[in-house]
């Protein structure tokens, strides 16, 4: 039989079930053990292709080919390692990638809005059932993504707990407007064109004094080949 065909898989160390850098003794010992199992003469566990792979790995790693193979292995491993590390590391999107969809003010300007207009009504009028859009580039969806979403909050006055009409800290208003950055991370697998996510904002409250204006925030992902220079707010 011929054993000159380069076999799959390419990781010869895996074939021999030994770590990279194993000694010749270890290679031989593992080969002897595995060859008993996979030799075609073995009627139960024998496998010609496995035997062939095994033999090729053994020959390469105990012969003159090992030096070259190890050099290639190291190079590939380093390349894979860097790639994998990069892919695990999330991209933090610039704030310009977060845009609020047609809001209450704009609807009001268009005469579509009255006070107390709710999301349900907005959906009915505009067909928009999300609060904001996150724009992503195609080249970014190979990594997890972190988006920082600025949200308006109402913060209860800590001096009077919102209950003293003569409180000097809040001028008796009980609370004041503030803003909080909501940091949300999307795993790679979630980065799907057009997907809408709903975040329960009560889980993001930094403390019991801070109240978000909404209970849920709906976020839609749009994936583009290129990001237009100035994303329009009309969607
Ligand atoms: Zn106060």
From TrEMBL:
SUPFAM superfamilies referenced in this protein's UniProt entry, alphabetically: Chaperone J-domain
Q: List the CDD domains hit by this protein, alphabetically.
A: DnaJ
SMART domains per the UniProt record, alphabetical: DnaJ
Q: Alphabetically list the UniProt keywords.
A: Chaperone
Which superkingdom, per the lineage? Bacteria
A Pfam family cross-referenced in the UniProt record is: DnaJ
Looking up PROSITE patterns in the UniProt record yields:
DNAJ_2
Q: Does the keyword Chaperone apply?
A: yes
Q: Where is the J domain?
A: 11-73
Per its UniProt record, what InterPro entries does this chain match? Apopto_cytoskel_mod, DnaJ_domain, J_dom_sf
Q: Which PANTHER family match?
A: DNAJ HOMOLOG SUBFAMILY A MEMBER 3, MITOCHONDRIAL
Know the name of this protein? DnaJ domain-containing protein
Taxonomic placement: Bacteria, Pseudomonadati, Spirochaetota, Spirochaetia, Leptospirales
């Amino acid at each position: 039989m011929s054993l000159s065909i380069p076999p799959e898989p390419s990781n010869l160390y895996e074939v021999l079930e030994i770590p990279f850098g194993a000694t010749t003794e270890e290679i031989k010992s593992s080969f002897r053990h595995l060859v008993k199992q996979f030799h075609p003469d073995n009627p139960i566990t024998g496998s010609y292709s496995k035997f062939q792979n095994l033999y090729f790995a053994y020959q390469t790693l105990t012969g003159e080919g090992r030096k070259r193979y190890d050099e290639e292995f190291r190079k590939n491993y380093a390349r894979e390692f860097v790639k994998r590390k990069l892919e695990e590391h999330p991209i933090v999107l610039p704030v310009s990638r977060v845009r609020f969809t047609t809001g209450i003010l704009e609807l009001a300007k268009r005469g579509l809005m009255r006070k107390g207009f709710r999301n349900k009504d907005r959906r009915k009028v505009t067909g928009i059932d999300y609060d904001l859009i996150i724009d992503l580039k195609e080249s970014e969806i190979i990594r997890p993504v972190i988006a920082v979403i600025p949200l308006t909050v109402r913060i209860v006055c800590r001096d009077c707990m919102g209950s003293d009409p003569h409180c000097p800290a809040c001028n008796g208003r009980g609370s004041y407007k503030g803003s909080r950055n909501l940091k949300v991370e999307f795993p790679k697998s979630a980065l799907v064109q057009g997907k809408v996510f709903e975040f329960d904002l009560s889980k993001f409250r930094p403390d019991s004094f801070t109240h978000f204006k909404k209970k849920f925030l709906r976020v839609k992902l749009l994936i583009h080949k290129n990001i237009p220079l100035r994303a329009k707010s009309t969607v």
